[in-house]
Amino acid sequence: MAEQDTLLRIEGLCVSFPSGDGRVTILDNVSFEVFGREIVGLVGESGSGKTMTSLTVMGFLPPSGRIEGGEVWFGHDNLLKHTEEEMSRVRGREIAMIFQSTRSALNPLMRVGDQVARVYRIQRGLGVREARKEAVRALNRMGIPDAEQRARAYPHQLSRGMCQRVLIAMMVACEPALLIADEPTTGLDVTIQAQIFELIKDVQQATEASILLITHDLGVVAETCERVVVMYAGQVMESATVEPLFAKPIHPYTQRLLHSVLRVDKTVEMPTADAGLSEEVAYSVAGCRFAPRCPRVLPRCWEEMPPRELAGVDHWVKCHNYE
Ligand SMILES: Nc1ncnc2c1ncn2[C@@H]1O[C@H](COP(=O)(O)OP(=O)(O)OP(=O)(O)O)[C@@H](O)[C@H]1O
Ligand SMILES: [Mg+2]
User: Fold this and answer.
1) For residue 321, what are the contacts with CB-CB under 8 A and spacing of at least 6?
2) 83 ligand 1 Cβ < 6 A
């Protein structure tokens, strides 16, 4: 593999939220990187902190959330040191995000073509007519049939899959270096999902942007991503290129995740937390938060957070007792 430049480097990120009388650390020492021109899958069961990680990168953490430590390097800038004004310049132009709920991200009162055209006007400084033309061209490139006509529709007149294509068109119009897509196909039917992932791959190739793809679906990761980062209860357990991770996962959590998926069929979703083992239990562990569920747990796993160790070429793991 050619030498890769690091586009995004998250280092030791800790984020807390109020809980009862105190605060709970929902991101605990999160570290991983996204290199230039690659698609990275961020996986983990519900509540593992995938969305909060990306919202922190975007500077969109809810007001009650507090950054307790860490750095988010984008190129030569630590985004956590940016003012809101500096962040708003980064958003859209450098980093764009597609959120979990699609339709609410579009303005219901504005024709979709105008929404895309607006991006061309604001971000690229095009005039009204030119921007409109570019918008139709972009919608067409996103595989929207009769783009000219569809551009005049309002979001509620389009299917959710079409709305997602409109959103992707808007993101691409900004020419961001990094696109974060948070569960971009939730609620869409399987055929449409597959088309959206194909589209994301095409977009990556055409724009040379890097993409951080948040998903529950390991099948999608296997087909779409170059690398994968596995989170559990706010901790990154393992990260590696896709092939070695799928062939030889080394963290007990990743092993369990893959095992449970392979046992059924590959489109099945990840297991939700075991009954009786709530997030609070995991969060209360001082060491590895997977300890309460781990078949290989050692006494020190409860007390000491394992360091991030290199277990192979670009294969990182946090475990006191990995295979
Ligand atoms: N506004 C909030 N206030 C307090 N805690 C929150 C808030 N939003 C999220 N959390 C908590 O932060 C943790 C991480 O949530 P996050 O939404 O990042 O998970 P996720 O991995 O994206 O899950 P999903 O797959 O369901 O989208 C969870 O424990 C969640 O309960
Ligand atoms: Mg989420």
Assistant:
1) 252, 296, 297, 298, 301
2) no
- Return d(Cα 267, Cα 190) in angstroms, integer: 9
3-class secondary structure, 114 = helix
Ligand 1 site, residue 44, Cβ cutoff 6 A: yes
Q: Percentage of residues in the chain with pLDDT exceeding 70? A: 92
The residue ranges of every structural domain in the chain are 6-94+176-317, 105-175
pLDDT digits (tens, 9 = 90+) for 255-295: 998 887 655 444 444 555 554 466 778 899 999 999 999 99
Residue nearest to atom 28 of ligand 1 (CA): 47
CATH second-level architecture of 6-94+176-317? 3-Layer(aba) Sandwich (3.40)
- DSSP result, 116-134: HHHHHHHHH---HHHHHHH
CB 320 within 8 A of CB 306: yes
> Is residue 17 in contact with ligand 1, taking CB distance under 6 Å?
yes
Per-residue model confidence as pLDDT tens digits over 138-153: 999 999 999 999 999 9
